[in-house]
Fold each of these.
Amino acid sequence: MEELITMAKLLKEASALFTWITREELESKDITWQQVLILEQIVHGPKTIGEISKAVSLSYSTVSGLIDRLQRDNIVIRLKDKKDKRLVWVAMSQRFDHADDFAEHQAEMETFEQKTTQMISSLHVLQEMYTTKKRISS
């Protein structure tokens, strides 16, 4: 039982730390989490709103609104397709002076995500251990 209490405390602390880190990072960039998801999609090249919408699991209208705000802040631009005028591409703005920072932070975030994946894996191991212990005790 003591192990479970320790695990619960560690999980609570990890959750609070994750919340604090992401809030601090996003506030320092004056950007929302959903906007970060969009920027991750276009940092390596333009995509359509439909492609972005699918990739981030948000509705087309929500993504369009988020892109409106990013465009207003000169972070992204919309580009009409030369062949199909109905198609609109979203790309990073050249004036977005944080584009290099974003790519750099993306590498940091990948490391963070790897560590998060390791933590999740460890939690699954703990869950399996607890299930096994519970089954043996019964």
Amino acid sequence: MEIILLVLIGLSAGIASGLFGIGGGVIIVPALLYLLKFPVHRAIGTSLAALLLPIGAAAAFTYFRAGHVDIRAAIIIALTLFAGAWGGAMIATRLDSSTLRILMGLFLIALGVYTLLSHKG
């Protein structure tokens, strides 16, 4: 059953990433927490490990071939993303699980509200 859930989580995250450009972690981390009962730090670490290659390679290549990638912007974001991810991981590994869960929940709520209220094209 766990393998089936992991496959469904991966497919869901991949589809959402390709459709909406969201990080798969928005799908993967909550799914690992609630469906498979992973501890929060393990869910985040597993999500990051799973996302290293598939998201960047498959989806980005498809958008690149269609002419929808700004290479300059992508390079700048990638370089700063590396630094930000390292810093965020350093902070997260020092937080207790309940604080990290609360912060993640607040972030996802804020992201959802912003997405719903944004009226731009």
Amino acid sequence: MRRSSENKNSRRQIRHARVRARVSGTKEKPRLSVFRSLRNITVQLIDDTASKTLCQSGGKEVGKEKVENYSGKCAVAYLAGKKLAEKAKALGVTKAVFDRGGYQYHGRVAALAAGARDGGLEF
């Protein structure tokens, strides 16, 4: 079982490298990078020209306790995206480049993107 999960993660890293070859962020339009684990989801706004993280948010920060009518990880991902958009607005960032991190644009990744869009980010 361990071998198949290692293979799955290495294939994701190869896909992520392919995406990263095409996607780059600047201070005006940073890269919105997603990392998804089995329990949590984390998102960062990254300025690749300066190699700096501008702000970050995640499922631990939002927490399922704060979600009304908790209905799973997608609700937490949506709120994490919305929280990141609020932080980005405070920094004066309105546009971003979406980096899905080698994950399928489906489920928690899509919910996070929807939350960021509803929070005011454009990508």
